[in-house]
Structures are given as C-alpha cells and as structure tokens.
C-alpha cells in the first residue's frame, strides 16, 4: 500500500483512525470465554463493528504472545480474517522489534512473508542494520521516534552537543535509509508540544500517533501541528474503543466510540487538510 | 537464580558460555525435516550435546516466530525440556522487547509466568516505564546497552553536551531502576575498546556478551577488561556452535566446539578471576 493509497482511503472514509487490537483475555466480556477461541471471537466482533470507521488495525503482539500458542493462533486468524474480509485496511504488526541483521531478517519474514502484514513497528536503538531487513517492497517500517509514555523522557529527549535530541537524530539519520514511501514514525499524541520539531525534519512522512484516549493525548492539538497535505497521520486508539463496554453489547459500543472519533477526524480533515 | 547462583555454576563448570539457540529451518540438517518437529529435535540434540559445557541457553525469539505456530510450539517445548532436564541452566529469552507499561507487562507475563524463563532481553529506547514491568522477583532484565552490530554506532555512541555517550546514559540511568541482582547489560564482544568505560559505570554487574565467533569478537580481549570478581560475563555463541557442521553428525561437532570454548574459558577464569 503506497502513501497515495492510504490517502485515498483516508479521504473516502473521512478517517485516519487506527484501531489497536490489544486483546486481553482478562478484559473481554466473560461470555466469550466459553467459545473455542475467545481472542479471535472478540477481535472479529470488534473488526466488523469498527471497520467502516477506521483505515488501519494494529494488533499488539505482546497481547497475543502472553496467551501462548492459542494467542498466536488467534493472531494469525485475526490477520487472515482482515485480509480476506477488509483487504483495503492497512495492517500494522505492533511488535517494536529490532535486532542484528540476520535476526531482524527472521522477524521480517514472520510479519511480512508469513503473515502478510503491511507494516511493522521497529525500535531504532540498534541502528541501521537492525532496521534495513524490514525495508521490503510495498511494506512499511514504522520506526519508534518519540513515544507517548513517560519514559520517553529518559533517553529520547537527550540532547547532543548541538542541542539535537535523540528523537531528532533518529528522524534525520533514518531518512538516509528509506524514503517517505517506506518509512513512518511513531510520535506519541502526548508529545504535541514537540510535533513542530518533528514536522520540521519529516514534513511529508506519515506518523503513527498512539496515545489519545487512555493515555491522555489530544486529537485537535495533534492535527493542528501534525497534519500535512496527504493527512500524514494515523491516529491510534486501543483501549478507549475496544474496552469501552465490558457487557455483551461491547461491539456496538465500540462502533459508537469509533464513529465518534471518525466524526471528529472528518472535522479535522475539513479544518486542517 | 541469583548472581551468586550463577557464579557457583560458572566455577563448577569452569564456563561462562551461553549457547544461542537461533534455530533456522533453512540451516538444520536435512534429515531432521522429516521428523514431526524439526526445530525441537534439533534443539534437543544441541542441548544434550552442549549442556555440560555451558551455563545458559538463549533462544532468540525471532527464529521461532518466523516459523509461525509450529515455531512457538517448538520454543515452548524447548524451554520445558531444558527446565526439566537441566534445571541448573540459566534461560534467557532473547526478545529485545520494550513497550508502554501495560504492554511490557504482557510480555513479562509471557516470558516469566507462562514460560518460566530466568531472563529477558529488553530494549531501553522507551525508558523506565517500559523496563519496570520486567523487574520481577528472582527474574532478570538484560538491557541492551552497547550492541555488537555495526548499527550500534548510529545512536548508542551519540554523546551529549558533557561527552556522555547514550550507552553510558543507559547504564547509569537504569541503575536507578534496579540493582545488580536484577539487571544485566548486553555489551557486544566487538566493543572491547569500550569495555573499560562500561566497567567504570557497572563494575559488579553481569554482562551478556554476544558477538564472539561469527561476528568477530575476541574472547581474551573481552575477559581482560570485562571480567570481575564474580566473573561478571555470560559470553554467547550461537552460529559458531550450532551450525558448526551441517551433516548428520552436527551434535557431536557442536559438542566439540562448545568444549573448545569452555576450555578457553577455564583458562580465562584461571588468568583473570
């Protein structure tokens, strides 16, 4: 999927919402636990309820791995379901991988060749040769730059002798490895005060923006400084949508929450695009 | 397993070797591909051949994930086999995870509660709250500090206004989060020129040292500057042992290669401890 393809979807659906599938057996409605594959059943219900309001899904691998083999099976089935039923949806493996070259290559095989995801999130700490194996034709690397959590202050904001913060160095350096058709960046919604510095370095790239909702980021603040001429934003919401309601009516409530965000996004596109 | 427990094993086996189980279906002897679970059969043969020469195993998750469901099953079976047959062995999940708090917590559950690993490798980029969930009683975090690959130069060596490199900041900052009984650091064997700067900050910690063998690091150089009074080193070798021989005799050859390193390590313990 190209940048242009993404933008077409965004205009069509009037949405740049990515729904995070952080599915936790301890948080899904109890009646699902009696089914053969509770994680998959939950995901399917959420997907069918929200697909028209979003352009991307982002299963977070941690949630599937922590459920062991059944978790992996549910993950593979979820991906296959989306691919088959909603082929226009952009599929992000939120994995935050990054290892020496031959190992990153194995992860790339897992997520791109085997599972046919469109994108994978990658951690930059190990540098170029840990990222390159993920750069494949028609696939996307989404590199962590400035994350939404408190710990982002610990290292990402560290400045070198020229006053350049680590997240800025990551943005600059990684542009030598890949074009704006191959790489996006994770920039937390809670970092809206730093978005200007981000856009100075990567004016045209897409950014994956987690942290609205449960983590406290503000959509309008992000759009005002972050939106570019092809939108350039995929804003993720996980818990605020998928766990909005723990009753048997969870899918309907998730649809309503997703629609609410979609309407806000239509508004933002109208205002800032 | 405490630092002292590890040291007891090191003295007993006269070895501080960690064998990396980077098991790749494309590299294992062909006849194994006819068995029900080739990855597991390969691992079992390698483990039985090398257990007396090493004190730790380090399966690299990428290799198992890339084989999908069968890979995860083989990983779980391998871990269970080691736990049952060689309970004195230190088990490291080489996962290089690190995510916002609630997600890291899910990974910690996966590796520690579900799989009963002793340690997990964690990437520091997202800071304190991404690492803390892995700090559990009797378990170890092994934090990436200075890795063995070429890309380590891209960000890990970046210096701040005071001349402190990022890897040094990671070592210093993370000591506020955990004691030397809870945290170790990944320091590549190829970085022997920087080991002195590492040991200045973490004189007593254990270091996990990958990069001898296929990646070109030198064992004696590492021991000369890296060894401390409880050894303080777990030196990993993966490909140089497990793929030393692609014939049906692979396990015997692996044993010989592991023994060769163990004898060298006995020598180093005698010389530098």
Compact summary:
Chain A has 273 residues and is an alpha/beta fold. Chain A has a single domain (3-272), classed as Aldolase class I (TIM Barrel).
Polypeptide structure, described:
The structure is a homodimer of 273-residue chains. With 273 residues, the first copy, chain A, is an alpha/beta fold. Chain A has one domain: TIM Barrel. Helices cover 44% and strands 15% of the residues of chain A. In chain A, strands 1-2-3-4-5-6-7-8 form an 8-stranded parallel β-barrel, surrounded by 6 helices. The radius of gyration of chain A is 18 Å and the shape is globular. Chains A and B meet through helix 3, helix 4, helix 5, helix 6 and helix 7 of A and helix 3, helix 4, helix 5, helix 6 and helix 7 of B.
Write out the strand line-up for the largest beta sheet of chain A, numbering strands in chain order: 1-2-3-4-5-6-7-8
CATH architecture of chain A: Alpha-Beta Barrel
Largest sheet of chain A: 8 strands, parallel, barrel
Assign a percent range to the helix content of chain A.
40-55%
Work out the count of structural domains of chain A: 1
The CATH class of chain A is identified as: Alpha Beta
Strand content of chain A: 15-25%
CATH topology of chain A: TIM Barrel
> Looking at the structure, what is the overall shape of chain A?
globular
Biggest interface, residues from each chain: A-B, 58 and 56 residues
CATH superfamily of chain A: Aldolase class I
Radius of gyration of chain A: 18 Å
How many β-strand runs of chain A?
8
- Note the total helix count of chain A: 12
Structural class of chain A: alpha/beta
Give the oligomeric state of the chains in this entry, treating copies of one chain as homo and distinct chains as hetero: homodimer
Low-confidence stretches of chain A: none
Could you spell the SSE succession of chain A in H and E letters?
A: HEHEHHEHEHEHHEHEHEHH
* Terminus-to-terminus distance of chain A: 21 Å
- On the 0-100 scale, what is the average pLDDT of chain A? 96
């Amino acid at each position: 999927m190209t940048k242009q393809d993404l933008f077409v979807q965004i205009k069509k659906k009037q949405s740049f919402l990515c729904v995070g599938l952080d599915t936790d057996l301890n948080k899904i409605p109890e009646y699902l636990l009696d089914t053969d594959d509770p994680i998959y059943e939950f995901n399917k219900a959420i997907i069918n309820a929200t697909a028209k309001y979003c352009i991307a899904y982002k299963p977070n691998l941690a949630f599937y791995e922590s459920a062991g083999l059944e978790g992996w099976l549910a993950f593979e089935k979820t991906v296959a379901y989306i691919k088959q039923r909603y082929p226009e949806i952009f599929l992000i493996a939120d994995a935050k991988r990054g290892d020496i070259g031959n190992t990153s290559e194995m992860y790339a095989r897992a997520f791109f060749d085997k599972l046919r995801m469109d994108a994978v999130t990658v951690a930059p700490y190990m540098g170029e040769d840990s990222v390159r194996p993920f750069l494949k034709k028609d696939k996307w690397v989404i590199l962590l730059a400035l994350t939404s959590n408190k710990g982002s202050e610990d290292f990402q904001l560290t400045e070198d002798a020229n006053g350049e913060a680590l997240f800025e160095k990551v943005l600059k350096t990684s542009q030598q490895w890949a074009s704006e058709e191959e790489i996006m960046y994770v920039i937390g919604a809670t970092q809206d005060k730093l978005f200007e510095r981000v856009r100075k370095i990567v004016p045209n790239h897409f950014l994956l923006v987690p942290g609205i909702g449960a983590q406290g980021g503000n959509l309008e603040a992000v759009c005002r400084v972050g939106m570019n001429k092809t939108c350039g934003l995929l804003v993720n919401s996980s818990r605020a949508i998928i766990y909005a309601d723990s009753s048997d009516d969870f899918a309907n409530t998730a649809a309503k929450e997703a629609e609410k965000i979609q309407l806000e996004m239509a508004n933002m596109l109208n205002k800032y695009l």
